Fold these 3 entries.
Entry 1:
Amino acid sequence: MTRSFIIVRRTLLALLVLHCSLAAPAQESQNKNSGGDKESSQSGLTGAGAGDGEPMAAKSGRADGLGNPLLGGERRPLYRLRPSDVAEVTFTISPEFNQTLMVQPDGYVAVKDAGMVYAQGLTMAEFSDAIRQAYRGYLHDPEVAVALKEFEHPYFVVGGEVGRPGKYELRTDTTVAEAVEIAGGLTSQAKHSQLVLFRRVDDDLVETRVLNLKKMLKTNSLREDAHLRPGDLVFVPQNAISKIARFLTKPSMSMYANPAQF
């Protein structure tokens, strides 16, 4: 075996070892990338297979969520009992305790053989738990089902310079302009450029919004017309000319003021 052949052979072996040493890290990097793609693909799922196993649909839009409506958070509150609401209570094993309860003005209900139970402000699930606790001394592990039978229907109120001020049932999606028409329309003394919408956010905070119904009707555009929510109050103020009309005679009134501008 010649010396030149030995040199060539050693060179080929060195190149083969170098190729193997470079190929191993590349394969490992490829495996990591494929694993990362798999993880990102898994994290992109929605529904029961997403994330940590909790459905994404359950994370958003949950009933009685804690989102702050002032900060744009979504909130879907559960109904809470109010005075005059009527609930039907049914006992699965002890039907002799079945009863229909009305929430009194003080917020209590008179429960058969168990005294007074406070119900105002409770959800149906919380009220069911309260009834169950009230019967702990009478029944062993009572099974209770509660159903809401009568309640105050959603409503809105229209006041001020309209034909029929009052309280109206909110049955369908209704805007401020539609509410004014339901209430008999505007009177001749209405200031329809400054309708005020009052909306209660909580017990201590009321949101107000001024709407220019005159502009909306003039431009044939109702994009700014607000949609009502249960409990909203729409107030139509009196225009300036009608406030001073009783102090002016008709000739002087036409001389100094044009009613069309109000």
Entry 2:
Amino acid sequence: MHDLGSKARVVCLLLTGLFTSPLSLAQNNAAPATVKAASGPQIMPPPPNYRFPNGQGYVYSVEWHMFTAGTAVVRMDAAGPEQKVTAIANSSGFVNTLYGVHDHFEARFNPRTFCSVWVTKHTEEGPHKRDTQVRFDYAATKSVLDEKNLKSSETKHAENDIPSCVTDVVTGFYYLASLPLQVGDSYSFPVNDGGKTAEVAARVEGRDQVKTPVGTFQTLRVSSEAISGTLKGRGKVWTWFSDDQNRTPVQMRAKLAWGTLLFRLQRIEHQ
């Protein structure tokens, strides 16, 4: 359990498609799958009829080895000319006793392009406490990371190359839902968390029925995994989205070398 915090960050980057389905998402007319797959890793802007799920939040239980390990909450709000995504993760039960995790993330992105603008993180993971800010400088094609260790007061500054548009580990939860999801569709897109950019590949594998405390859903099963960068080959994630215009993310399973995490939707909050 000593490195659960670093493993949790690995899960975050792999789970790019988890919290991605605004309840107010309208149908769109994007290009067919063959064109999408051939265009290479990129962030596509939302279609003109896309509406962001402002004021709505998804609350999940997180299960690990049949135990409830904690909760995760993700919500979106308007923030002037930008969109704001907030994600909160808290461990509970014996997991919290062994290695407490209490993280708060906030991301801003351009609603016209879906390009991330900046990310801030306050992380408390076991004995580690850090404040981190990542800024995306597209003019210089760099991500700029500044981090402070809140216990030792040590600071870190790092710059890494990025393409002309990236999503981040928080905004990426919403990006996939702006795309049409039909069985057989494949996508690849760049994700950056302040380090080296990873390419994430997603594929719509099939349809399943999933029962949750919110209700029973007919869903689309989407797999996601990193195919380049430091996360390549380190795990795979399956997300079940409701098979309707809402694309509600009702369940997710992350299979990694050290175990499996299961996220179940418990409720949907409305401001």
Entry 3:
Amino acid sequence: MINDKAVTKPKKKKQFKSDFLFALPYGVVFFVFVILLIFISIALSFTYYDTINVPRWVGFDNYVTLFTRDSEFMQYALPNTLKYGLIVGPCGYLLSFFMAWLLAQVTKPVRTALAVILYSPSLTSGVMMAVVWKVLFSGDSRGYLNALLINWGLISAPIQFLQTPGWIFGIMIFVGLWSSMSVGFLAMLSGILNINKELYEAAYIDGMKSKWQEIFYITIPSMKPQMLFGAVTAITGTFNASGMATTLSGSTPSPQYAGWLITDHMNDYGFGRYEMGYASAISVVLLLIVMLFYFVAKTLFTEKEQ
């Protein structure tokens, strides 16, 4: 009589080896370009490193300077990043889910065309921001928005949208929301389309009466993995945004540091002043902020075991 355990064990070993080989290339790339670089950044954050001389150990001096003597970071970069992330992140996330839900209600050809249109800004936002948005918000009378407002008699002189601190941040929010339909949007659309239609039919038989109940009691609970993925992409996308105010205003830093984000501050010290140790400390702080919001999102969208 053949021993079933003896037959099953080699099959499981073989399957494990094949799965491991498929995952190995991604694992190597992820370790080299993500995990290893994170540990290198953490190590460099405790040093003074100017990219030429050997890193010199300074302990927590970079962090002490960052939180006690770096006024640009505490007054502008950190508050602007938190405001931008807390506005564009949740609003862009809700907008992505709402648009994905709307597209799921239309026919496939229309859905495909609209999905491509909505997704494309997230791929071309940098180029479009430099070309389209600068023309739209240009500070002379030839700027599209100024020309419209002058023609309608709402203003008598052009408004310097991209040079006025009060306007730049609002325009950044608008541009961020415009390009928020990223991979998370596609994941949520896929999740909605793969929900079993019989769940909706059974719910309506049991007394469900509105689309809102359908969304909250069936759609969202049935696609929590996609919702979590969308939340993660929204968090990383918004908190890692950089160069937006600089591109719009054409100056570094932007007027009165309006729209100056943590990544802009990090790039300024790392690639402008070549203080890589200090820039690494800034990157570690940004990583901790992103991880904090990630754990919040994970708590909200991870299914609890019964």
